[in-house]
Amino acid sequence: MKRRLADPEKMMKFQQATTAGIRKWLSDPVNAAKFAARSSETMKKRHTDPEFQKRRDKRSSETMKRNWIKYRDTFTKVAVERYAAGLGINSDESKEKKNVAAKWIMKKCRESMILETDYIAVFTDTLNRLRREFPYDGPKDGSDYTDYLSKLGRMVTNSPECRMIADTFMKAAIPRFSAAWQGMKTDAYSS
User: Fold this and answer.
1) Residue closest to 177 by CA, chosen among 84, 117, 105
2) Quick check: 108 and 129 in contact, CB under 8 A?
3) Were 173 and a residue from 38, 109, 121, 179 both cysteine, which residue would form a disulfide, CB within 3.0 to 4.6 Å?
4) What is the pLDDT of residues 41-52, one digit of tens each?
5) pLDDT in tens, 55-77
């Protein structure tokens, strides 16, 4: 049997005969239903087994790595062409989705920073100090009081006191609310 199966021509005939036999057996609706139920149960058991998941993930990773090494130049060329054509991650739709996500995340971060830190008190103290240090002394070079307030606002938000609170808080808050955004998207897809 080993010698016969080692012959490529006989092996091909054997595979064709096996495939034809399986097709004939599956043409009976009762057999097809049994096979589908058995296959479904087998796959359910496999995909809930942690050892199978490890083997599957390892095999998948190795396949992806092999394909990346083999087709890297092609993948890169296609990706660059799609990006240049304004498709995929560079499409207007994708950019709009990113903008919506970024606005939501930053809004939640700012709201939380105000509630969870003493940022407002520090901001107010810094604003009052800078008003004393840099008082408004009338319009200069075509600028008015609105320009003065705008400049003062930038000075306050960039002050070391406010930056320390904001930077420290945002470092933890942005990943937190990014995960919340992803969770909302996942829940929306699943329902």
Assistant:
1) 105
2) no
3) 109
4) 888 888 888 898
5) 888 888 888 899 889 999 999 99
Which single residue is written with the structure tokens 């036999």?
21
Q: Is residue 6 part of a domain?
A: no
Predicted TM-score (pTM) of the model is 0.55
Does residue 43 fall inside a structural domain?
yes
Q: Show the domain range for 70.
A: 16-84
- Give the 3-state secondary structure of 125-175: HHHHHHHHHCCCCCCCCCCCHHHHHHHHHHHHHCCHHHHHHHHHHHHHHHH
Q: Is residue 101 domain-shared with residue 162, that is, in the same domain?
A: yes
Q: Distance of CA 154 to CAs 85, 139, 190, Å?
A: 38, 18, 43
Is residue 82 within 8 Å of residue 90, measured between CB atoms? yes
